[in-house]
Amino acid sequence: MAFIRANGIVLHHHVTGRTDAPALVFSNSLGSDFRIWQAVAPAFADRFRVLLYDKRGHGLSDAPPAPYTMDDHTDDLLALLDHLEIQSAALVGLSVGGMIAQRAAVRAPGRVRALVLCCTAAKIGAPELWAERISAVEKGGIEPIADNVLQRWFTSDFRKTRPDVVAGWRNMLVRIPAHGYAGTCAAIRDADLTADAGRIDAPTLCIAGDQDGSTPADVVRNTASLIPGARFALIEGCGHIPCIEKPAALTQLIQNHLQEAGLV
Question: Model pTM?
Fold first, then answer.
């Protein structure tokens, strides 16, 4: 485990792979920590300097008072890259991690060499949805909403056939600090990246799960249509967290995209 203070908060992170290789950063979804990449990230360690990190309010990183903004999360990432002396990187972002990646690509285009936007969009959900979720978490914590979240994260088949695995990831979810979760909900609620999507010039791949209950495939496909030159790919039999449910398929798509972007 490694910890550094960046942008005024302590961030938990892990670096693996080759120090002389291009950097590849994985950014997590709402309610998760970087362990969700455990079946994907190792596949890139022989060709990349791989960075995993817990965003603010999640995992072992600091959880400052809520609410947060998408620029808060983006500032954290850019400050972490500065601390690690990473001048540029390919970014793989899942859900809110994908929104952070989009924002970084607009704010610091010279630092983003390629984007993989997984189960994410330029705008996710209506403000009323997020206000309702924030209120529920502030009143009762994450536990009361956890099962509904898991229904969006994973397909029915995965939940039925892998109950112990799902229970373990549920444990991760409910142990996220409630105010860190709610703070990031506020960041998603207030972020509309649609107007800036056309400014993204990094090679971009947008990936959806065909049974994603949080960012349906059509929403992800629409975001791909806003980004110049972006491609869209669909993973079948998959919900919102393909790095857990379909890691081999996701790994292959990322590998192919990075190769086409000239990074492999």
Answer: 0.98
Question: Where residue 85 sits, what CATH number does that domain have?
Answer: 3.40.50.1820
- Kindly report, residue by residue over 59-114, the tens digit of the pLDDT: 999 999 999 999 999 999 999 999 999 999 999 999 999 999 999 999 999 999 99
Task: Count structural domains, the chain.
Answer: 1
By residue range, what is the domain housing residue 160? 2-260
Helices 146-153 and 163-174 pack at an angle, to 10 degrees, of 120
CA–CA distance, 194 with 176 (Å, rounded to integer)? 29
Contact by Cβ (8 Å): 124, 214: yes
CB contact at 8 A, 203 and 260: yes
Question: What DSSP string describes 168-220?
Answer: HHHHHHHTS-HHHHHHHHHHHHH---GGGGGG--S-EEEEEETT-SSS-HHHH
| Residues 100 and 77 sit within 8 Å (Cβ to Cβ) | yes
Q: What's residue 1's pLDDT?
A: 75
